[in-house]
User: What shape does this take?
Amino acid sequence: MRPDCYDVRPIHVFWEHKKVMVDRLRFFEARGVLLGGDAFAERYERLATKAGVLRMLLLKARVRRDTSIVERIAEGVWTIGLEERDLLVELVDALDLRNRCFGVREGRTIVGAA
Assistant: This one.
């Protein structure tokens, strides 16, 4: 296996992205942009936790030079990607619904909308 397969930087960025998304979603939920009923931040937190586990597994694989762990990590990244895609589709739908309900269209507020 190539030595760069043990490079932790890509998985670290992957994990950091999930953490930043949690912060963004909490920001939106706190300001009422996203209603907490769908708990997007909470669901994204689970993805961030899974990504953090994969990050730690890569550190373990790096020390042991164990390619089987790297294969498990690749599968985990794929799985997280699928879960994240579904979550983002729901998020876009929720934002679109909120915008339609409050009269926001193409970055502009409709005159007379509350």
